[in-house]
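Human: For the file, kindly provide a plain-text protein record giving the amino acid sequence and the backbone structure tokens, at your earliest convenience.
Assistant:
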Amino acid sequence: MIAPLPDLGLIAGETVTVRTPTIGYDEHMEEVVTWGEATVQNVVVTPGATSDVLDGTRPDGTRVAFTLGFPKSFTAPLRGCRVTVRGIECAVIGDPQPYTPENVPGAWNYTAEVERVDG
């Protein structure tokens, strides 16, 4: 007996934490950054390329990258944010912009690349 094929129409999203910076100033006009935090469910996580050696000057350097597909219900800007994915805190690359929701048939229309570089 042949096992039935899985339902390929379902994509399982994951829960991530988005940390958004707010810049303020103290009494000495020194910049102070505080971080707001929001949990976002149903994010599609796609692992990106990893690297154990960034270049010859950083032999102990490592890079971890993900592409994240945020659901249409998430509309906050991601520029300058940090996202915790699978326990790894990553920086958002650039200024991601959502696709027009009407032009995307699925549940996700906001793609962001994130990465963490150590060493």
Q: What stands out?
A: The mean pLDDT is 86. The chain has one domain: 14-118. The first strand starts at residue 14 and ends at 25.
